[in-house]
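Sat 14:20. Reprocessing the chain from the morning session after the first attempt stalled halfway. Input below, unchanged.
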Amino acid sequence: MRAIKGYFSGIRRMLLPLGSLALLVVADGVVTNAVVNGGSAREANFMMAPLVGDGAFIALKAVGALLCALILWDIYRQRARLALLSTWCLAMAYAGIVFWNLSLLIQAHL
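Finished this time. Tokens:
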């Protein structure tokens, strides 16, 4: 029991940035899907481009977000400051991507 408690100590400190990052990655997938399907833009990632418009695209984004969250949580157990800084930086980068894609979506509908 002590091992389990030790593994999850500090979860509140890391929960907000991890949750934010995961939601932003999925939001990026949803908005990118809408923008690309609307013809306003194209997917810049050549490996993901064939998947846009398919249900697998959103599923892959969700699985990738979960995998990243698990890796960052594991890093947090070893190096808390590094994991927190990395997670917040990634969340800010994804927020920028989501806002960029939203601006493209809004421009397309004006």
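Residues 14-108 form one domain.
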